[in-house]
Write a structure and sequence with these properties.
261 residues; alpha/beta; 60s Ribosomal Protein L30, Chain: A; Alpha/beta knot; 2 domains; 6-stranded parallel beta sheet; 4-stranded mixed beta sheet; 10 helices; 10 strands; 38% helix; elongated
């Protein structure tokens, strides 16, 4: 009987969905970390050899990589070689720190326009938003480190290459990063169907960070509460909400329209 058959079939089926580069093997991953490579995620085998795990853990100290503990079959779906219990999914771009981006823009006496995506998980939505963001003059996109779509080869393709041109910032504490942005003088604008103020009556001029929520449940209530203003896109139909990439496009266009008039 083939070892781990039910799991092997499960992950073989998903193997075709792998996109982008990955590194496997403890030593290779450690050297990549030391070289400053960026990762979307590091997959670690459950029950990994203790000595190898401790060596990797020491190197991971001080870094904010997203870790996921998985069965060996998941790792085997990436490579048939000896992965030693670790596969690191390499990011095709370099992620930025939102603090450094905002500080740099303010130092240049620019009025930052930040797009904050609260748990947007669909790669196609993420790519489409990034494409529009680059066209409409967004300075940076802020995403959570966990529970969010990451920059992959598929996302870059969907964005028509825009993700190579616009700064993407990841945050381990999304709410704290938004608070920092707010303290720097940017107004937080939450775009949600729960708001009462129409988008076209909202002042989007100047330094702002627009928050858009997940495909499932919109913006987290805590973020809506901390926003300086909430607005909604007027609708006449029966469906309760728009696709997040469509909503993002409308908000970004409205800001540009206001700036030009």
């Amino acid at each position: 009987m083939e070892r781990g058959n039910k799991y092997t079939k499960k992950y073989e089926k998903k193997e075709k969905d792998h996109s982008g580069d990955y590194i496997f093997g403890v030593r290779a991953v450690i050297e990549a970390i030391r070289a400053g490579r960026g990762f979307n995620k590091i997959l670690i085998q459950k029950g990994m050899d203790k000595e190898l795990f401790l060596e990797l853990k020491r190197e991971l100290g001080g870094h904010d990589f997203q870790l996921q503990f998985v069965p060996p079959e998941k790792l085997n779906s990436y490579t048939e070689n000896n992965h030693q219990g670790v596969v690191a999914l390499v990011s095709p771009i370099t992620y930025h720190k939102i603090e450094e981006v905002v500080e740099s823009l303010l130092a240049e006496e620019k009025k930052p326009f930040i797009l904050a995506l609260d748990r947007v998980t669909d790669i196609r939505n993420f790519g489409a938003i990034a494409r529009t963001a680059e066209c409409e003059g967004v300075d940076a996109i802020l995403i959570p480190s966990k529970g969010s779509a990451q920059v992959t080869a598929d996302a870059i393709k969907t964005s028509a290459g825009a993700l190579n041109r616009i700064k993407v910032c990841k945050s381990d504490n999304f709410k704290e990063s938004l608070f920092y942005i707010q303290q720097c003088g940017l107004r937080l604008v939450a775009c949600t169907e729960k708001a009462s103020v129409p988008l076209y009556e909202t002042n989007l001029r100047g330094s702002v960070a627009v928050i858009l929520g997940s495909e499932m449940d919109g913006i987290t209530s805590d973020l809506i509460k901390m926003a300086d203003i909430s607005c909604k896109i007027p609708m006449r139909g029966e469906i309760a909400s728009l696709n997040v990439s469509v909503s993002a496009g409308m908000v970004m266009y409205e800001k540009l329209r206001q700036e030009l008039h």
